[in-house]
Amino acid sequence: MSGPYDGRPVTAATPSMTVAPAPALPPGQSPPRGRPPLRRLGGYALIVPAAIPILVGLGYPLARQFVLSFQEYGLAQQFGRPAEWVGLDNYVALLSDGYVWAVIVRSVAFCLANAAITMAVGMALAVLMARVGRPARLVLQVSMLLAWGTPVLATMTVWQWLFDSQYGVVNWILAEPLGMAGMRYHAWLVEPLSFYAVATVIVVWMSVPFVVFTVYAGLLQVPTETLEAAQLDGASSWDRFWLITIPMVKPVLLVVALLQIIWDLRVFTQIYVLQRAGAPTRDTHLLGTYIYSLAKEFSMAGAMATIMLVLTLALTGFYIRHMLREEEL
């Protein structure tokens, strides 16, 4: 049986808890950090098996090249003669040569021009691929894959025939349908300017598919709701592209442009094959082919390769700083 009820409301008794306030920290002092969790250390441990082969495979050749650049190392040293330590003599000899500076400037100009053209063409084709229907998109995708997947030497053989001075299709089109009679037997590889024009066409042709597929994947991540809302607000197609689409895919564009700069700076196969087809070697050298021409002098080649590495790091470092500054805004 229950006890008498006196008319007062019945409430559940809850024990009171007193929470002590956290001690205040002095100004400018952050709270102490605890030890990293064990699972985080386990994650780093999982990287070790992959990091060790990468460090050995890339680190040893790089260190060996750096050491060779400070030595007098040639064919005689390959047969057992001890290498002589010469310090900075190799670097001084290279950097005091005006031709080396001409090759560096030529390589940087070729790199920036090709990267800019590749990004422009790749972005245009990616936007086109995102707006056309499914059949046309499949044709573009298959075409890009064929251009990207064809071996470099096979591609170079085709392009050499296209620009051949006697039987090339390019010369025939310029001379017959377009009426430029002076281009009928034009030798594209003899003059440095036309040589680099041909090299640019080939390098851009082989680099565009990567940009197209990467930028196209970024365009697919742009929310359609945002574009539709901007269209309802009166924004034109051009405004929607520059003010909405480009800012959203900007991280992808920055990374792709950085990779293009690195790849175009160290281009080798296309230039070397075109040189072997009859181009003047000295007037068409870029950094990659010039380093290859120093193959008999290992120390000079190592020094030039180190200069190329420093130049690559300088360009990428400048670009990364600009990229981080853009993200902070």
Helix-strand blueprint:
Layout: H1 38-68, E1 71-72, H2 75-78, E2 84-85, H3 89-95, H4 98-131, H5 134-149, H6 152-162, H7 169-175, H8 192-219, H9 224-232, H10 237-265, H11 269-276, H12 281-284, H13 287-293, H14 298-328
Antiparallel strand pairs: 1-2
Helix pairs in contact: 1-14, 4-8, 4-10, 5-8, 6-11, 8-10, 9-10, 10-14, 13-14
Question: What would you note in describing this structure?
Answer:
The chain is an all-alpha fold and 329 residues long. It has one domain: MetI-like (MetI-like fold, Orthogonal Bundle). 69% of the residues lie in helices and 1% in strands. It contains 14 helices and two strands; from the N terminus they run H-E-H-E-H-H-H-H-H-H-H-H-H-H-H-H. The chain has helices spanning 38-68, 75-78, 89-95, 98-131, 134-149, 152-162, 169-175, 192-219, 224-232, 237-265, 269-276, 281-284, 287-293, 298-328; strands at 71-72, 84-85. Strands 1-2 form a two-stranded antiparallel sheet. Helix 8 (192-219) packs across helix 10 and helix 10 (237-265) runs antiparallel to helix 14 (298-328). The longest helix has 34 residues, at 98-131. It is globular, with a radius of gyration of 31 Å. Mean pLDDT is 82; it is low at 1-5 and 7-17.
Identify the strand order in the major beta sheet.
Answer: 1-2
Number of domains: 1
In total, the number of strands is 2
* Structural class estimated from helices and strands: mainly alpha
**Name of the CATH architecture:** Orthogonal Bundle
CATH class label: Mainly Alpha
Strand content: under 5%
Shape: globular
CATH superfamily: MetI-like
Write down the Rg: 31 Å
Helical amount: 55-70%
Determine the mean pLDDT: 82
Can you tell me the residue ranges where pLDDT is under 50 for at least 5 consecutive residues?
A: 1-5, 7-17
The number of distinct helices, counting runs of at least 4 residues, comes to: 14
> What is the string of helix and strand elements?
HEHEHHHHHHHHHHHH
Q: Biggest sheet, open or closed, and with what strands and sense?
A: 2 strands, antiparallel
Terminus-to-terminus distance = 74 Å
CATH topology heading: MetI-like fold
Region (Disordered): 1-34
Domain ABC transmembrane type-1: 104-319
Subcellular location: Cell membrane
GO biological process, one term: transmembrane transport
